[in-house]
Amino acid sequence: MGFFDMFPKKSKPAPVRPVRKEPSGEASAPKAVPDKNVFNRRKDLRYRIGGISAGDLGAVTEMSREGAKITKRGKLKCSDASVSLSTAHKSLHAEVVRQDDDAVGLHLTGDFDTGSYIRQNLERLVEEDPIPLSALTYYTISQYRQHDFLTPLTNLMAELESGETKVERLKLYIIEISEVHRKWTEEKEKKNKGVTQNTGPEAGDATVFPDLKEDLLTRSAGSKGVSDINASDIDCIVARLGLNAVKRISGEFVKRNRARVEVSLPGFRNYHLFTTLKTVLFKRISPFFGYKNEWGEGSSLLSLEACGLKILMKNSPLDLHGYYTSPARLYSEASRSFERLLFGTDLVQVNKTYFEKVVGAFTSVLDGYVLGYLLLNLHYAVDKGMKVSITKNKLLYSFVMYLTALAILFIIERDRESGTTLMARLKRTGMDEKKSLDFLNDCIMEANSVLHEMGIRESIKPVSPPSSSFRLESYLPGEAHCEHFLKTFRNFHLLQGRRMVVRYEDEAYAHFILNRLLGIDAFGLSSAIACVIPCGNITEEELYFEFFTNFDLVVFKGIDRLPRFHHKTFMRFWEHYEGKIIATLSASSLFDYEQKDFYQLMRNHIADFPSSLSTPALHRRMADHTIQYVRPFLRDEPPDPNRYARYLDTPFSMTHIKNAELLLSIRRG
After folding, report:
1. Which pTM was predicted?
2. How many CB atoms lie within 10 A of CB 359?
C-alpha cells in the first residue's frame, strides 16, 4: 500500500515587488488565488533508503522526518507496540502505527537524526556521466564565420510576398544583404593577399553574387549617376523608383541569385524548403500570441539555428553528414544527448555561445530560443553553466518558436502527434481545427510562392487533419503508482486546480512523461499557452508578474534549484498568479529539510511521480520507453529482443540507458 499516511492534517495581478528594491508607496499585494486541491496530506516527505535491518521482519526501506516503513520479507507479524532497531551509529526507537502483510508503519520516538541518515543512505538510480569523445572549446567556436546570404534573402522574399510590405523592414533586409556582401568581399581580398586563413565554411563566391543595394542605386540614379545618392539612404531609392518598382527589382534579384547560394548543410533533405517554411510560419504565427517581430530578429535567429550544426559537423571526430538529415534529427532531445557524448556540449549551447559571445547578436530573443527548445523537449537537461534571463519578450518568443517547430515537424515530417499538439495550441487563437488547417495550408502556399519566386522547383505538400496514435491507457502500465499519479493529474484539471508539484527520482523520465501529459486532451492543458522556466539556470535579474500575463500555464522545472534570490518573488507568484503553475522537484534534494519555507508553501500540492525503484513493472516500462525513444537515432541494426535485458536487473535511469545505447552506436561507427 506504499508508505503509510501516518500524519493527516485534522483583474490583473500587479508586478511582483523586487526582492532587493522595495519602493515606498507600493500598492498592496494582489489577493491570493485560492486552490482547494490537496494532493498530499502528509506532514513530511518520504525518502527511499537502504541500510537498516529489521531482523527476520525485513528492512527499513523508507523514512521521513518522524516516520519509517519496514518492508517485510514474509507475513510475520510485529506484535510489539514499540520497536528498537540497531544501525551503524545509533539505535532507532519507534512505535508501530500500522501493519499489513507487506509492511509495517513506524512513528519514530527516540532521538534519531533522520536528515543525516537519509542523506547518507538515500537510494538513487544508477546514472553515470560518460566522458565525451572530444571537447569543443570556445576558441574553436569563435573561429567559425558564417556570412549568410540565405537568411536576408529569405526574409526579403517573405516581406515582398506579404500583402502589407513595410518599407522599414524592406530597407533592413536590403541593407543586410549589402552588409554581408561587403564583409564577404573584404575577407576574400584579405584571403587572396594571404592575410587571413579560411576559418569557416562560406557559400558561393562574392564576385559572382551582386549587391542588391548597388543594383537599386544604379537604376534609381539614372543619368545623374550613383554618386548623386547616399549609398545608405534607401529612402531615396524608394522615393525615386516607387515601392512597387523596388519590390519588383528586389524580387527579380532574389530569383536570379537564390539558386547560386550554396547551403552548407550536406545531407539535410530539402533544407531550403525547411528554412523558407520556418520563416513564413514564424511570421504568420507571431501576431496571434503578441510577439512583435518588428525587425525580423526572431525569424532570423530561427533561420540561422543551423550555424551550430555546421560548427559541430566541422569539428566532429565522426562524419555527421548522414546524421543531420531532417527536422526530426535537428529538434529531438536525443540529438542533444548524442552531441554531448561527442563534444561535451550540444547544439543549443553552441548556438547560444556563438551568437551571444562571438557574434553579439539576437540579444533580445536568444534566451527565448533556449526556453522554446525546452518547451518542445521538457526532458532536455540545460547545461548547468548556461544562464538565461527572463523577460516577457523572451517568453513570448519561446512559445512562437515552439509552435513553429511543431508545425515544421507536422508539415515536413508528417508527425501526427506534433500535428495534434499544434492544433490544440492553435485553438487559443479562436480557430477550430478546420480553420487551423486552412491557416497552415495558407502558410504552405505562401512558402511555395516564395520558393517559386526564388527559382526553386520543389514544393511543400499541403497537410490533412492529424490523428494521433498515442493512447495513454496503453502507454503507461495499469499499476497502482501510475493510476494514483494520473488520478491526481486528472483532479488538477477537473477540479480546477491551480498548483501542482511533481516530485521525481528519475528527472529525465519524469519530464519525458510530463511532456506527453501536457500535450494530450485528457488533462485539459493541451490548449494552454505555456512557458517553462529552468530554475537552476536563471540569472538574478528580477521577475515580475507582467512577464507571465499572456500565459495560462507556467512550468518551473527543478524548483529546488531556484536561486535563493528569487524565493520571496516566487512565493508571492505562487500565491497570487491567476494561471496554473506546475513545479517539478527532485526527491534527492531533501526539500522539507533544506528549503522549509518552500515546502510549507507547496506541500499540499506535491504528487510523487511513479518511481522505477518501486516495482519491476515500472522499471521495465521506463526502459521500454527509453529504447523506443532512442531507437530512431541509432545505426541500422537487426532487432534483438534480448539486447535490453541488461538494463532490467539494475535500477538504471532513463539518461543512463539512453546514453549507453547512443554510445554503443557511436563506437560502432
Report:
1. 0.84
2. 15
Residues 587-621 have pLDDT tens digits of 999 999 999 999 999 999 999 999 988 888 899 99
3-state SS of the chain: helix, strand, coil percent to 5? 50, 10, 40
Cβ contact 298:308 at 8 Å: no
Residue pLDDT, tens place only, 542-584: 999 899 999 999 999 999 999 999 999 999 999 999 999 999 9
528 close to 504: Cβ distance less than 8 angstroms: no
Output the average pLDDT for the chain. 83
Q: How confident is the model at residue 12 (pLDDT cuts 50, 70, 90)?
A: very low
Q: Between 616-630 and 507-517, two packed helices, what is the crossing angle to 10 degrees?
A: 70
Sequential DSSP letters for 175-193? HHHHHHHHHHHHHHHHHHT
Distances (CA, A) of 13 to 31, 164, 289, 577, 578: 8, 36, 20, 7, 8
| Neighbour tally for 419: CB within 10 Å | 25
Question: How many helices (H) and strands (E) would you count in the chain?
Answer: 25, 11
- Grid coordinates belonging to 434: 478546420
Report the range out of 182-186, 276-280, 354-358, 569-573 with the highest average pLDDT.
569-573
Asked whether the beta carbons of 180 and 234 are under 8 A apart, the reply is no
The pairing of strands 580-586 and 553-557 is: parallel
Identify any residues that bridge with 59 across adjacent strands, giving them in sequence order.
53, 71
Give the C-alpha separation, 341 to 322, whole Å: 17
Identify the helix (H) or strand (E) that includes residue 554.
strand 553-557
Split at pLDDT 50, 70, 90, the class of 277 is very high
Nearest to 548 by CA among 392, 398, 430, 423: 392
DSSP 47: E
* 98 vs 56: CA distance, rounded Å: 18
Look at residue 399 in the predicted model and tell me its pLDDT.
97
Which of 376, 392, 330 lies closest to 511 in space, CA to CA?
Answer: 376
Question: What phi and psi, each to the nearest 5 degrees, are found at residue 47?
Answer: -125, 140
- Within 412-432, residue ranges assigned H as helices are 416-426
Which residue(s) pair with 58 in the sheet? 72
Strand, helix or coil at 585? strand
Query: Which of these, 518, 512, 519, 520, lies nearest to 623 by C-alpha position?
Result: 512
Indicate if the pLDDT at residue 414 is higher than 90. Answer: yes
Which single residue is written with the C-alpha cell 532497531? 85
